[in-house]
Amino acid sequence: MHKLETLGWKNEIEINTDNVARVLTVQKNSYRISDGETDYLAHLSGKFLNEALSPIDFPAVGDWVEVQKLQDEKKAVIRKVLPRSSQFVRQAAGLRTDPQIVAANIDTVFIVNSLNYDLNVRRIERYILLAYESGATPVVLLTKRDQATEEEIEQAISSVSEVAIGVPILTISSLTGDGMEEFKKELPEGKTGALLGSSGVGKSTIINALLGVQVQETKDIREDDSKGRHTTTHREMFLLPSGALLIDTPGMREISLWDGEAAMETTFQDIESLIEECRFTDCKHKTEPGCRVQEAMETGELSEDRFQSYLKLQRELAFEKRKQDQKAKLEEKSRWKKVSKNQKDSYKYRTR
Fold first, then answer.
1. Strand pairing report for 245-248 and 192-197
2. What is the structure's pLDDT at 94?
3. Which of 59, 92, 140, 324 would bridge with 100, disulfide CB 3.0–4.6 Å?
4. Right CATH for 3-81 from 2.40.50.140, 1.10.760.10, 3.30.70.1050, 3.30.413.10
């Protein structure tokens, strides 16, 4: 086995593998990378920084990168990000209209939520949408199974099933080991997974349980409101004893959409199927005769909350698209202003 294959390398592109490494951690402007044998502390080359146009161009955990190694110092310079097979992207926090890559080249997105009264199916719905959009396969992990009754577990699975159409739903306990074998089957040797979810739902505890050692700090959720407390402060990829790779991420209580139009049909396949059965192709699903969506809500086949969430996400995606288009226009205008100014300055210099 080639040393890179231990990190999930698939040999899908022709390149000198001696200059290839995978990003294990990202902390501000510092990167820890590995070539399967040695870890290196890496930084970006000047050319990379000059040519990068968007935050999405920068390396993320899970990325394969072309590097120049400085063997004696165990340091390296990242020259290029290799093409990604998948990328989980969300709208960056704050007021800026920028994408943020949470993880790259992942096969499975594990959407983690604890079995308590903070279980939020609408949030899970968003994660599923972005997981499909990323190109990875979503799996829902309901944790802290040892702290829930059988009735609570069944009720939680039933609620999540309404939004996780065709998505595996697993209940696990990292402390007792219940459900962990089923979880491991979803992440076989050579595959890469990412744990995504709010703080305090047990992501770091899962990592510790799989590795058999305490590598990640953990804190439980608050008992008064079941809200999590941040423990993981950066994204990091771990090589598991099974030969699989798993990325731990900081908690994300709110997850704003960046893109997802292509994944709407898969995420809401139940609603999309109903819409196709409406009598009129331009049905607004309000008072039109023969509206299959309204009929489904009246009979309980489709919950109104699910349909309202579908409409809300469509509006949010349309709004984000308008913001992104407006930003692109402003950036293009600014770029041409700089080009024009440089040309004028150059002309003045030549005519002196």
1. parallel
2. 55
3. 92
4. 2.40.50.140
